[in-house]
Amino acid sequence: MPTGLKMSRRRFERLVSRAVRELPPEIRNRLDNVAITVEDWPSEEDLRAAGLGPGETLFGLYQGTPLTGRTTDYGLALPDKITIYQGPLEQACASDWAIRAEVQTTVIHEFAHHFGLSDDDLHRLGLD
Question: Which domains are seen in the chain, by residue range?
Answer without folding.
Answer: 9-124 (3.30.2010.20)
